[in-house]
Amino acid sequence: MENFNYSIPTKVYFGKGQIKNLAAIIKEYGNKILIAYGGGSIKKIGLYDEMIKILNDNSISYVELSGIEPNPRIETVRKGIKICKENNVEVVLAVGGGSTIDCAKVIAAGVKYEGDPWDLVTSPQKINEVLPIVTILTLSATGSEMDPHAVISDMTTNQKLGTGHENMKPKASILDPEYTYSVPKNQTAAGTADIMSHIFETYFNHTKGVDIQDSTAEGLLRACIKYGKIAIENPKDYDARANLMWASSWAINGLISYGTNSPWVVHPMEHELSAFYDITHGVGLAILTPHWMKYSLDDTTVFKFAQYGINVWGIDKNLDKFEIANKAIEKTSEFFKELGIPSTLREVGIKEDKLELMAKKAMNPYFKYAFKPLDENDILKIFKAAL
Amino acid sequence: MENFNYSIPTKVYFGKGQIKNLAAIIKEYGNKILIAYGGGSIKKIGLYDEMIKILNDNSISYVELSGIEPNPRIETVRKGIKICKENNVEVVLAVGGGSTIDCAKVIAAGVKYEGDPWDLVTSPQKINEVLPIVTILTLSATGSEMDPHAVISDMTTNQKLGTGHENMKPKASILDPEYTYSVPKNQTAAGTADIMSHIFETYFNHTKGVDIQDSTAEGLLRACIKYGKIAIENPKDYDARANLMWASSWAINGLISYGTNSPWVVHPMEHELSAFYDITHGVGLAILTPHWMKYSLDDTTVFKFAQYGINVWGIDKNLDKFEIANKAIEKTSEFFKELGIPSTLREVGIKEDKLELMAKKAMNPYFKYAFKPLDENDILKIFKAAL
């Protein structure tokens, strides 16, 4: 097990009706808030009205930033910062899924930064003071409700970049699984794939003696596989929505990565697909993952793919380890198909012409330390296999 | 899954050499500290000298409370509070195992309380302000390094009681597995049993839809079983000590209990054994646990004992569920024996004469909500079976 510094300070209010704590949570940090949200889904499910009533009843004043897009844009971040500065906002309340929370995080950091907020995306070390962030989650996927990360896009330059800072961890998050009852099947599927990808990114590593991290990751994956299907078949199954929601937070809040050591590779590859084609992040991940797995399987990595097959998919441990590994990859691929996710890049409108450019941009020096080390040519091969 | 409010604010510095962060951690809260510790083991392993050098080099002034006993006494708490008040201590640094940390917690709370600290043990709601607590862990067992609880004894009245408060969670804990290399075999065994008992207390519940909590608990139990043995055979196996240490924190910091609902029963029973006979807590737990399991096994509980047998002990899932359950209980009992822990109360000097009185004192109204509801007579039967 590697050394690590653990810090997961976000308070989580999990379960039915937890919005009752909203006013008390906010008042710990201020009385003037920015409500950041996306499209109209929070109005459709009644959450917006419920929230506004609580704010009014408790004399919390608010301004709004609506229309935060999936793959949130730097222009929207700039707009949010302007609203906060003009209104002396003290707390940023993000209501929505990962895109909304990510956007809110960089707004909260940008309010306390003199320059242009794109600096904070390209240079996370420039982040310092951050307005307190509170979230109400309505989509189980990115884990942004309990982590320090944000991904922001500049579509004018086809850049989609991740940033992060300890101070961007939300102070508190309200996780009510009932808010996800109305999430459509395709978004539930993409969210489940995103959660699973976060787990894969840390689980596939060469670190010895990380039994606790491994078994926790495997349990989370089994929960995603079981409850992802149930949530799609029966969107109002509370335990399914609850397990997916809690898995989304655990997948990336540090619990399974502390003590391990492996750089992420599939996310950076997918970010290029989204930056050029604005596709749904989870869909891109689900398409790439089985191909990345196949490409990464060799004598040095088969041990972990076999472990994955046995402990997550229940494959007979007495089979040949490569047979187990290949079956596990096949099952992963089949599972995403069963969830109704496209399985090729062509299906989401991606053609061969930009693959080379995207592979070039996805490449990062730390890829040489990946579970299976990758160079630009390897990435291109994975893209082509996924086409 | 049940509703829950998650809060695990303790920062953990885990791994080799993490003591290098000690001064920075303390200085966040003050410059005058109380060092609380037990016998001489921290001097034997060189930790005391290492720590004092860091304090001196960083102009942190300190006073000391040594000699904190296993099953720490209220008299020692009073002594610690007096030292803190006389010296305007700002931070309490606990260096040792659970007993030392528990004692330090009630000292830190008692400094800010006007009355006698025994009030804070009998009435946790009287705890309010608490001096910042920092810990350096030297024994993997109680999980006190990352939780709000403390257990304090008054041997003059044979009372051993648990208390707890959100503000008693340590601000930071240094967890260096190398500090546990010199823990003797019997303490390693008792510590492992304590960790496993914490997991059992929450794992055996009737809550539906807690797959994430269950699989995490099962993974922790497998880690304890694997690494408990290894640590006893090879005390300087880093990964064994690291997994036991991290398991000790996870077992009771809330990760596996949030969302579940079951009152603890074996710990309250064991506390009576320790209060009357001053035995090692983990030994008492290991003796009682298999008998509590056997007594609790019936048509309403067999599902979970069978799940435990399959997922923790790898017992064939095609067997009859009661057969699986009984085999699992047998394996639990055998495991504790293999660790060298006594398996009867007589072996640790407990005789029949006080069993009735201890059962009476252990009884608590909430035992009727236990996994298998228990009354005073049930407790007596478990004690007698363990004799």
Describe this structure in words.
2 copies of one chain form a homodimer. Chain A is an alpha/beta fold. Chain A has 2 domains: 11-179, 3-Layer(aba) Sandwich (Rossmann fold), CATH 3.40.50; 184-386, Dehydroquinate synthase-like - alpha domain (Dehydroquinate synthase-like, alpha domain, Up-down Bundle), CATH 1.20.1090. Chain A is 48% helix and 13% strand. The first copy, chain A, is built from 15 helices and 8 strands. In chain A, strands 1-8-5-4-2-3 form a 6-stranded parallel beta sheet. Chain A has a two-stranded antiparallel sheet with strand order 6-7. In chain A, β6 and β7 form a beta hairpin. In chain A, α10 (266-277) crosses α14 (355-362), α11 (281-296) crosses α15 and α12 (302-313) packs across α13. The mean pLDDT of chain A is 97. At the A-B interface, β1, α8 and α9 of A face β1, α8 and α9 of B. Chains A, B: Keywords: Oxidoreductase. Chains A, B: It comes from Clostridium diolis. Chains A, B: Residues 9-177 form the Alcohol dehydrogenase iron-type/glycerol dehydrogenase GldA domain. Chains A, B: Pfam families: ADH_Fe_C, Fe-ADH. Chains A, B: One of its GO terms (molecular function) is methylglyoxal reductase (NADPH) (acetol producing) activity.
